[in-house]
Design goal:
Length: 309
C-alpha cells in the first residue's frame, strides 16, 4: 500500500481535492458508497469532490443481487448474521458488568491513585480480554462460514467480484464513504474489496474510515440508555495500529478523562484516534502518522496533532 488518508464526517458539499492531490492520484477513483444503502448512487457531490470521473463500485446493489439470485447462500448468510448478533448481545451483557467493575474499583480506591494498586489494571485487563475474545469469536464464525460456503463455488458472487475487480483495474485509488457501518462491512467483504483498500491509495471518511482499520468499535454514550464502546467487527486492515472513533463530540463523553483513559487502554496497543469534522489521519504503507491526528493518551488526555508523541 502506498498511502491513505482517513477523515471524519464530511459536510454536504465536501472538499476532498486537496486530499486526493496529497495521495498523488493520477486517474479515476473507485468509489464505495454502500453504507448509504438505497441512496448508494446519489454520489454526484462526491464525484465532484473527488475530481470527477469516479467509478462507483455499486456494492450495495451487488449485495442485493447476490442475495436475491443465490437463495441458499442468502439463507446461510442470514443464519450467520443471527449467530453474530447473538454473540454481540452476550458480549454486550458481559461488557456492561466488566465496565461496572472498573468503575467500582476506581470509586472504592478513593482519591489516591496508589490505593488502587493493581486492582484497576486487572479490571481493565479483564475488559480488554473480553474485547479480544469477542473479536476472535466473530472472526472465527466468519471463517467457518467461508469454509462451509466457499466463494469460488457461488457463480453470482464470482461474477460480481470479477466485475468489481475489472473496475478497480481502471482506477488509481479507492475512496470509501460513510453510512451504515454494518452494511458497509458486509458489502466490502462480500464483494471482495478489502484487498483493494490495502494495495491502492486510499481515502476514507466517517464509518468508511472505521471499516478500513483492523478493529471496528462503535459507541454512543449520549443516547438514552447510553451504549459504551463495543467491538463490532474486523475491518480490512488497510490501516493498522489504530482504532478510530468517529464523531466523538456527539458520541463520547469527551470531557470525562477517566472514561477516555479507559477507552484508550481498551484499544491499546492500538492508538485511539478521534476523527471529527476537520480531523485527518495520514498513513504511509499502512502505518498511521499519529502526529497528524488527535489521539487519546492512556492518561485520558487528548493530544492534538502538534502535541502527539
Amino acid at each position: 500500500m502506498t498511502a491513505a488518508i482517513l477523515l471524519g464526517p464530511q459536510p454536504p458539499a465536501p472538499r476532498l481535492d486537496a486530499d486526493v492531490a496529497a495521495l498523488g492520484v493520477d486517474g479515476p477513483v473507485a468509489l464505495v458508497t454502500a453504507g448509504y444503502e438505497e441512496a448508494e448512487r446519489n454520489d454526484a457531490h462526491l464525484d465532484r469532490a473527488l475530481g470527477g470521473g469516479t467509478r462507483n463500485l455499486g456494492l450495495y446493489g451487488r449485495r442485493l443481487d447476490i442475495l436475491e439470485s443465490d437463495t441458499d447462500f442468502a439463507a446461510a448468510l442470514h443464519r450467520l448474521r443471527i449467530e453474530l448478533a447473538e454473540q454481540q448481545t452476550l458480549y454486550r451483557a458481559r461488557l456492561v458488568h466488566g465496565l461496572a467493575a472498573v468503575d467500582a474499583v476506581r470509586r472504592l480506591g478513593g482519591s489516591s491513585r496508589r490505593s488502587l494498586g493493581t486492582q484497576l489494571d486487572d479490571a481493565i485487563s479483564d475488559v480488554r480480554t473480553l474485547d479480544d475474545n469477542h473479536a476472535a469469536a466473530m472472526a472465527a464464525a466468519v471463517r467457518r462460514f467461508e469454509d462451509e460456503w466457499p466463494v469460488h463455488e457461488r457463480d453470482v458472487i464470482l461474477a460480481h467480484r470479477g466485475a468489481v475487480a475489472a473496475q478497480l483495474e481502471e482506477c488509481a485509488a479507492i475512496a470509501v464513504a460513510g453510512g451504515h457501518v454494518g452494511v458497509l462491512l458486509e458489502c466490502v467483504w462480500l464483494c471482495g474489496v478489502g484487498p483493494a483498500t490495502v494495495r491502492m491509495p486510499l481515502i476514507a471518511w466517517s464509518s468508511g474510515a472505521m471499516v478500513v482499520t483492523e478493529r471496528v468499535m462503535v459507541t454512543d454514550e449520549h443516547e438514552i440508555g447510553a451504549r459504551p464502546a463495543e467491538v463490532m467487527g474486523t475491518g480490512s486492515a488497510a490501516v493498522c495500529g489504530v482504532v478510530v472513533m468517529v464523531d466523538s463530540q456527539a458520541r463520547l463523553r469527551i470531557d470525562d478523562g477517566d472514561s477516555l483513559a479507559l477507552l484508550a487502554r481498551r484499544c491499546a496497543p492500538r492508538a485511539c484516534v478521534l476523527l471529527d469534522d476537520g480531523d485527518r489521519l495520514a498513513c504511509a504503507d499502512g502505518a498511521p502518522d499519529l502526529d497528524s491526528a488527535r489521539v487519546i493518551g492512556l492518561d485520558g488526555v487528548i493530544r492534538r496533532p502538534a502535541e502527539a508523541a
